[in-house]
Structures are given as C-alpha cells and as structure tokens.
Structures
1.
Amino acid sequence: MAHELDRLTDGTGAVFSVRNTPWHREGTLLDAAPSLHDALRLGGLDFEVEVRPLFTRPQRNTGRPEASEYRQVENACATVRTDREEVLGIVSKRYQPLQNRDAFEILEPLLDAGLATLETGGSLRGGRDVWMLVRFKVESPAVQEVFADEVVPFGLISNNHSGQRRVVVQETPIRVVCANTLSLALEGRSRALGVRHTASVEAKTVEAARQLGGALIERYETAAQQYRALKQHHLDTALFRRLVLDAAAPVPASLEQSGLTVGQELVRQRIQARRARLTQLWTDGAGHSGDFSAWEALNGLVQSLDHEASLWRVRGSRAGALLDGRLADIKGRVLAGLVAAATQRRN
C-alpha cells in the first residue's frame, strides 16, 4: 500500500512508526512512542475536513459560465480537505465529518492510564483514509504463555473522509515475526465496531473506544485459548483444502469444465496460483516450523493477503479492503472455520 501513502509538505511519507521500520522505509521512525500532538503531525493527520455544497452547470459550450448558471445539488455535498482545498469525496447531506484530532483524542484515556502507547499512524489516498494504532499492555500470564513475543495486541481507529466507509474501532493482533495483521473471533463476533458519519458520530466513536479498552485482558485470555487450540490442531491435506483453500480461493464449478474461454482460463489460473501459494506458505511461511498446524495455515493466509497484492487484486483502495472490505472478510471467514474445527476436536 506504499503507493497510497500521503506525503507531508517536505515530501516525507505521512506515517510514523515506533521501533519498527515504516512501510517500504517511508515515513518517520521513532525510538519511543510520541505524544498525540506529535503523532498527528508526523502522520500527516493535522488537517481538517469540511462538508461543502455541490453545484452543477448546464452542459453547453457557452464559454465561461456565469454564476447564475450554477445550480446547487440538492441531495449531495463534497468533503473538502481545507489545507489543500482538495475534494476527498461526495457524500449525502446527512454526512457528519469526524475530524482527525477528535477521532484520535478518544485514545487519550488509554494513553493517560498507561494501558496503551501509540505505535503507528498515518494518512492514505490524500487523506481519504487515516488511522492510528496503539499497543496494549497485556501482562496476563495466560496471554504471555501463548503469545509470548510473537503476537502483540493492538487497538486500531481508522477514519474515512470520502464517504466510502464508516469509522472503525477494532482490536487487531499483530504477528511480529512477519507483521501479519490477524483477527480476533471472540464469542463468534468480530471485534470491529463501525460507526456511521451522522450527527452522533463522535459520541458513538467515544463509546466504541470505551468498549475497546474494557475487559481487554479477559478478551485476550479467551483469544489465547483459541490460538492455543489452533497451534495444537494439525491439518491433513483434505482438511486444509476445505477450511483454507476452498474458503479463501474457491474454484467455481463453471471453471472445472473443459472448453473454457480465454477469459475463464485466466481466472482459473489466477485462482490456482492463489491456492498454490497458500499451500506453500502453510509450511514455508515466515517463522513457520512446518508442523501442518491450523495456526500456521492461518498465518500463511494472512501473510499472502497482507503482502502479495498481485495475487489478491481488489477494486478501489487496497487499504480499505484490508481494513474492513473483501480481504478482511476472507481472513475472518477462514479464522472462524479453523477455530471451529480446532475447538470441536478438543471438546
């Protein structure tokens, strides 16, 4: 997603990262967690968005139009980044922007209480998508036993200024060995909370952040039990095909027939390439021991989705697809299937 990264006025990538090198060596690398004020500046997040009326003019070649020719659009407005006077998106009149400062100040109670520190943050697609990531301090022995230093719990707030997505507040474990963004399937629900950009957007985002910080240790202890089950559950080829390959990259029956068109053959080859790569990563992924576990099957999938854009092409923003779109759905679907299989076997 480096090509989607916004730029600061000096040309630096609009992203900061603590201790770990930012994307593709772009942005600002920090030795310690920054203040929220510095994080907004280093992440290119210190801008505001306004909702402004839209106008149209008749489609006729009359030279420069007169002001009286413009007509206001009744049911739509534009979101505008005020520091650059750039249009970010077209939205309804009910749309209420959530300013970056207001969105990320919601994290301050967690920071002030010492429960979390800022880890990364930045701006994508000219400011259309922005995010801030905090590292939670979870010292529970049960969590440490399973995750140790391999998986670190994070909280993410992402905001969209183009009208394409909600504000998202979620937990997102990171597998440090290969920087894979995993998911939590606790109680059969995603730990992502979406908030619409309406009049109550700020209040609802505050409540979502409160839920994010509440009962955190208990949730990660539950997650640790699930991930322990994944590590102890070993798959045979048939089960891997059903739970991972067929869930993430299914082959439609129409492509199993002979006499395919050129276009159909290309689609089939693309799907087969995904399946072959996932199978390879199951045993040879970063940090894998080759034990055929459900844990390494999950991490192979996430490694490919997160880092191999050529295999998993999406329409529109790849960042959006990973945050709460098609790629995120694939992760959640495969995780749910693997957890169900692993826990059923233990019971």
2.
Amino acid sequence: MEELKIFKKDRTYIGTATRDEIHIKGLWHETFHCWIMAEIEGKEYLYFQLRSKRKKDYPGLLDITAAGHLLSNENVEDGIRELKEEIGIKVTMDELTYLGVIPYEKELEGFIDREHAHVYLLQREIPFEYFTLQAEEVSGIFLVPFEEFYQLWFGNDKHVAMVGIKEKENGERVRITMKADKDMFVPHNDSFYKDTLDAIKSGRN
C-alpha cells in the first residue's frame, strides 16, 4: 500500500501514512502540480486534462495539466514522472519554472484533502497528437485561454470557449470545440486558483 510523507500545516515533517489514512484524517501531504502554458498567435493558453470517468474523485472534470501525490521515498523532483505517466510528455526539471508551494484544502463527505502543492510551469506549445493519455487517469486534453479562465473564476464571465481532444474507450480521438462553465472544472478553492494563476502570471517568461 502506498505511503506518503505527512506534515503539519507549517510543513514540519511528522512521519508517514497510507493514502487512505491521509484522506480520511485530513493529514497534510505533498503533491506535484505542473501546468503547461502555450502562446499561440500572441494569446496565452493553459492545457487542462479531462479526468477519466473511471476516477474516484472528480470524474469527467477538467483539471491541472498533470499532477499527483509524492510518495514517502520520493523527492519533489520525482513528481516530474506525472507528465510522462498521465499525458505522455517527457521533460526535464531544467525546463520547468518552479512557482513555489501553494497550500490547498478541500473537504468532501468522507474525503479531506490537505496538500502542500509544489507547483511548476512548463511553457511550450504541444500539438494534441503528441499527447499519450493514461486511460485510467485522463480522457482528454483541452486548451483554455488563460485570461478568459481567470475571468471565468474571478470576473463576470459565465463561460469560456475551449478546444481539445477527447479519447473514446476504443482509443479513437475526436476533436471538440465547446464552451465550458465553472461546473466543468474541478472545484478547487478560489484561493488556490487565485494563488496559482497569479503565480503563473509572475513566473512566465
């Protein structure tokens, strides 16, 4: 059974626990988040993954490009494996911009998530056909305009236009252009989205 390092809220290390125990008790643990940003024809976009409907948590919702838990025997840098595993993109740490640790808390019935999220940014335009999706984790990739997403969350916009691909159970891919509202994204806390988007704004080249 997977074990993760556990911490106090101030990031003081206190030991290890299983993933199930961590989410039942609401223990602080470390995660790796990587956002991919592309500039296309002078406009900035974020890549969002579409979580597989097989996922226990937030199935079928749009989320961080690639993210995952750090195991008890891993360093932060080991989290880069998530990009290869989930979306088939191989990069080195030197290609990423470190945006810092952003705390994240979310409570649902029977599930408490308290993360010290190590957040990174990769600035690269990647054609959709270059992505290899881990079927049990990810079922699509979408490009969402950065500023429009910001306004969706913190402005008056009700929808954001986006384009992407969705992979069917048989492996066939379909290209999709659609409008999305906030309900189509993982409901991370407003403070987490705000801190993350502001960090991306500051950290981009």
3.
Amino acid sequence: MSRIGRQPIVIPAGVTVTVEDNMVTVKGPKGELSRQINKDMIIEQEAGQLLVSRPSDQKAHRSLHGLSRTLISNMVTGVTTGFTRTLEIVGVGYRAAKAGNNVNMTLGFSHPVVIEPPAGITLDVPAPNRIIVSGINKEHVGAMAANIRSLREPEPYKGKGVKYEGEVVRRKVGKAGGKGKK
C-alpha cells in the first residue's frame, strides 16, 4: 500500500466535501475548489474523514493512489488556511511596488514590469524587496510565483534577480583578475 495514499484526510469543522462521480468539491471559509479525480480511484467519506483507495496493484493505480489523496488534501488545506509563497528581490535598484491589485517591478530592464494577478491570487508587497503570493489553489500559487521568478532569475556571479525565500543560489567565481600580466 502507498504510505501517503492510505492516510485518511481529516475534514476540519466548517469544511464540507461532496463527492459525485469522482468530482470532489470542497467548500470552506476561504472559498470553494473542485477537481475531477481519476475514475479508477475509490473515494469514501465517513465520520469526518475521506479515504482514497485503489482497485488493484497495477502500476498505474499505485501511482495515482498517493497523487489523488494529496490533491484532495491540498484542496482541504487551501480552503481552510490557504497557501503562500514568498519571493525575494536581490540587486541594487531592483524593487517592487504595489499599485492597486498589480505589482510594478523594476528589474534592470529599460521599462518597468507590471504583473497582474489572475483571479484567486493575491500579491502583497510588505517591503520593496519582498513579494508574497497567496491563494487557495496550491498549483496556481506555485505557477504565479514561478512566473514572477522567471522574469529575472538569480544569476550565479552576484546573485542578482528574483528568488524564492530560502533558496540558495550557487555562486561561481568571477574572473581571475589578470594574474601574470605586466
């Protein structure tokens, strides 16, 4: 059995889960999420818990078992607490500023970069060198953070660019500095 797949998903108070033809809908204090789970997976709801099981030990069913359970668990977590991803901006003159819902970023280009968040995602700028991406859908939060990071990825010589909080940028040694020249 899958160690992750066999764990029950605890449904907290204030969250309702409905399952119809493997279409799982989770409603909570922060919003509502729906997702179609593979038709082969068996989803049972009992006593404030959800159990995901698989019909056989085929390789495809084994791989879908843990995935299905994790997707549903992330939906429950998203509607109760939500997900956040923090980005740091490193570099002289690199900064971000909030303008309404949008974020204006100065990243060393000849023009400012304006980021418009999609529905369900909020962008917050607590400091000029930090951006917090938050929302209830883990996939959308991660994709938005990755899109912002891709605007100016950290370079390996000085470490300038946009990076995830806690990300370690491997640094390279620069030029040797003209040794042996007269």
